[in-house]
Amino acid sequence: MPAVQETIEQVRALDVDKYKYGFETQIESDLAPKGLNEETVRLISAKKGEPEWMTDWRLEAFRRWQTMSEPQWARVHYPKIDYQELHYYAAPKSMSGPRSLDEVDPEILATYEKLGIPLKEQEILAGVRNAETGDGLDGEGGGEYGSGRVAVDAVFDSVSVVTTFKKELAKAGVIFMPISEAIREHPELVRKYLGSVVPVSDNFFATLNSAVFSDGSFVYIPKGVRCPMELSTYFRINERKTGQFERTLIIADEGSYVSYLEGCTAPVRDEHQLHAAVVELVALDDAEIKYSTVQNWYPGDAEGRGGVYNFVTKRGDCRGRNAKISWTQVETGSAITWKYPSCILRGDGSRGEFYSIAISNGRQQVDSGTKMIHLGKNTSSRIISKGIAAGRSDNTYRGLVSAHRKASNARNFTQCDSLLIGDKCGAHTVPYIESKNASAVFEHEATTSKISDDQMFYCLQRGMSEEEAVALIVNGFVRDVLQQLPMEFMAETQKLIGISLEGSVG
Amino acid sequence: MAEPTRIRTKAEEALANHFAALDGDDPIREIRATAFDAFLSKGLPHRRIEDWKYTDLRNLMREAPGPAVPAGIDDARAALAGADVFDGVDRARLVFVNGVFMPSLSDMAGVAGDIEFASLNAFLARGGAVLDRFAGTDPGESPILALNSAFVRDGAILRVKDGAKLSRAVEIANVFAGGKPGLQTMRHQVRIGRGAEATILETFSGPDGVAYQTNAVTEVQVDADARVRWVVAQEEGAEAIHLHMLIPRIADRAVFDPFNFATGARVARAEIRLAFEGEAASAGIRGIAVARGRQHLDATLIVDHALPNCTSKELFKAAIGGEAKGVFQGKIIVRPDAQKTDGQMMSQALLLSDGAEFSNKPELEIFADDVICGHGATCGQIDEDMLFFLRSRGIDKSEAERLLIQAFLAEAIEEIGEEAVVSALEARTRHWLGAEQEVLSA
């Protein structure tokens, strides 16, 4: 099997889109029957061993969803999705009962390793050594923060397969676990916050997610705690014709800090896969959440066959005074992206940030941006968005900045720049700027241009190939955003940008 | 009637009744009916219609008065006397009162040899073709246009001859007269000949305290190498609803610079849909809006670059006081063939009071790669530092504020580049600011 896999990979590597995560893991799965009805919802809830209130919550969402229609306003075009043709639950068969790394199917571990996420190694190297010396947090934990130790929650199709560093995090009081576990173990927290940022009936896809979400991460950082390491979730869609609906809920209590990373990949498939996630962030007084995404779902081939539909609702609520939420996203994958990570700046003095790089090639369609909703006094927000369109793709920035009546001294700065590579692609900017307070100051600027001939000439003349030159120039173009990414992601992202744009020149 | 019947609003119901009461022998009855059906199928636009997101006409237009009764000559003359925004500008004049051409009040001295003119009404009597002469704009896509085609009564059909350099500006004055609410509907069609040069002024005015409505669509064909200044001054009465579309089409190397000055009406929407139909043409599209009280002023702009080497520059400024609401929507479209397009758009708003609101939506829609396009948008209040600078030099607060607002607006007005027109509009803004300040200090 591995030999075959290798051959497939090598062939894939020659393909125009060079998607290197397109392999498939052969593993037995437990699939829910196709289609969506109340039974499916009950089945998912039962599989997760959920309490009754959760089942009711899902059913309520499902009933609402049936009355809703798919949004049409985004600049994306795709054939109608048949929601009855999908599996709403897929779990590796070996996954039952309590789990530790040793019990995880080796095939799955191998998958993650191939993706560059060595779950096992990391735990042994860092976790065990720490356990031996006995210093958890205050010893080298603090010093090592940011130097590569990352706690990972790995989500495979519909379930979380493993969460690393759980013990060490627990020492700091940090709760980091699959949300399905949190529903059982910390129902009071989940009940209080779930759906409080993205209400059940917020939009079509969020409501669908509320009804059928299977897993995702739950994070709670207690008062005054600076999370000792980066937290991360790695999403992988493997099974055919499944939808992935994960739900992430992060709560940063007063004065706490957490940095969270999210990565995603999927195998190469001819048909489209649906991914409709909901992410909710809650930052209380003086808390800070930094949420970074490197989204690299399978984008489909050069002709637009296959690829993931990424219809995601992400929203952060700066509920407390001086809270801060920062979104950083690198969007290179997905056939269609429909995603607007937002900040509700409710607490006085709170701050929202959005840094985005969206790259589209082939026939990809990206409609992404943010919403900064200023409700409290002295709130500020900053938006830096860099869109790069190549091939026959469409890349749209769509963003809202609004100041409500009471948002005195609200401040926003927005910059969105688009770069066009080739004359078959489109770059669009659709900002909405609404001010209902005279003391609010909003500034917005946007530019669209192509890579200048001068820059290209300069690079070529120094012996770079055309593709290298484009990658270099683009990396310069997106530098403002790259700098916001955690170290580990920065290098990977730079490479990813090179790969995404391959085949876009000449 | 397979379609489910939408519940009509009171205004839509009234419009349907007015439409049914129109003269049955009308030679363009069919065109009107098609247009009105197109309107009724969607009804008045509301906030869930993207183009009308910030101007919810269903909510803002509760009543719909019937077609205005033509004014008597004395009323018309009195009303025209109040419409004096360009008094200091040397100009010929075509006067429309309550949507009807008034030859006796018009004056074409000095330009008669360079211009051909007829009233639309004379053409309508002979049948319909004239209405789609330049149009080609589908009535289904714009409720303003659909209502205009349904109710149009008169308008100016104007042609500036090839190569003519007009010695005076030409004003198309649209005046509402009388104390009774009514709807005036005009369709002006103007063609500026090859290589011609002209300044056209389009003015709108009417009495305060009368809830009349204006629906005006102005189509302009700008032939190759022509140069045109087009200034719209909207000073409708305080209770009026004003809907206006300016639809210019611009040929090779022509220069068309429209300016939209908006200060009147309770609710106003000034829409410019400009299309480049030739290469290397340019347009400088600018405007200011000043609003107070509970006014709602909307400036909407679509600039369509379909061909290479065209340039468009947009600058819109707004000063919003009281509980008024300002809206700017601007969209630059660059189609795949429109390489070497240069499109720049700037929208700036000053909020003068706590109750004021401004919504800004500057859009870029770009399908060509060799272009330079950008937009900027700002919104805020008068800069404290600038205010301090002036006050530290002994200028009192209200005077300092006035100077700053005036300077802010003047940046756009000065771009018109014709002294008499500039000073006329600056005088108007000064007048407005004086009145606004009385409100502020009261």
UniProtKB/TrEMBL annotation, chain A:
Q: Where is the SUF system FeS cluster assembly SufBD core domain?
A: 235-477
Q: Which residues form the signal peptide?
A: none
Transmembrane feature ranges = none
Sequence ranges assigned to domain SUF system FeS cluster assembly SufBD N-terminal in this UniProt record: 167-227
Q: Name one GO biological process term.
A: iron-sulfur cluster assembly
Query: Which SUPFAM superfamilies does its entry note?
Result: Stabilizer of iron transporter SufD
- PANTHER family (alphabetical): FES CLUSTER ASSEMBLY PROTEIN SUF, UPF0051 PROTEIN ABCI8, CHLOROPLASTIC-RELATED
The family line of this record is: Belongs to the iron-sulfur cluster assembly SufBD family.
Q: What is this protein called?
A: Fe-S cluster assembly protein SufB
Species this chain originates from: Propylenella binzhouense
From TrEMBL, chain B:
Transmembrane intervals: none
Q: Which GO terms describe its biological process?
A: iron-sulfur cluster assembly
Superkingdom of this protein's organism: Bacteria
Enumerate the spans annotated as SUF system FeS cluster assembly SufBD core domain. Answer: 182-408
Tell me where in this chain the SUF system FeS cluster assembly SufBD N-terminal domain is found.
Answer: 27-172
Q: Which Pfam families match?
A: SUFBD_core, SufBD_N
Task: Check the record and name the PANTHER family matching this protein.
Answer: PROTEIN ABCI7, CHLOROPLASTIC
Family in the record: Belongs to the iron-sulfur cluster assembly SufBD family.
What is the name listed in the Swiss-Prot or TrEMBL entry for this protein?
Fe-S cluster assembly protein SufD
